[in-house]
Amino acid sequence: xxxxxxxxxxxxxxxxxxxxxxxxxxxxxxxxxxxxxxxxxxxxxxxxxxxxxxxxxxxxxxxxxxxxxxxxxxxxxxxxxxxxxxxxxxxxxxxxxxxxxxxxxxxxxxxxxxxxxxxxxxxxxxxxxxxxxxxxxxxxxxxxxxxxxxxxxxx
Length: 155
Description:
The protein is built from five helices and four strands, in the order H-H-H-E-H-E-E-H-E. It is of the alpha+beta class. The mean pLDDT is 93.
C-alpha cells in the first residue's frame, strides 16, 4: 500500500470520525467545516488508499458472558516447512480466538482467546489449541484488568 499524503482537512475528518464514528457523512462534513460533497470525496479517497479500512461494531464480549481472556504466546517448531501456515490456518478456525499476531524473536505467535469461564477455557485449550500443529512451546497469560484500550490515532 502506498503512503498517502493527508492535509489538514483529511486529518480533521479522521480525527472527528474516529471520535464519533456514528456520524453521518453530512454531520461529519458540518463538524469539519466542509461541504458534504468535499467530505465524501475525501473519505472515498482515503478508503481507496486504504487509510480507512471500514467501520465495525465494537462489542464488549464480557457483556455476552465471556469473562475469561488469555493471551497465549506460542513458539513454533520452525523445522517444519509449513509451520506458520499450518498453525495459523488452524488458529483462524477457532471462534474463541479473537486476535492473532505474529512476531520476530523467540515468540512466533500471540493468540488472544476468550471463554465463558475457566472450564470453557480449559476445554478450548485442551481440545482446540493444543491440537494445533507445530507447537514447540506455549505460555499462557491470563488478563486480570484491561488498563487501556484505544485504537484512536493522534491526528
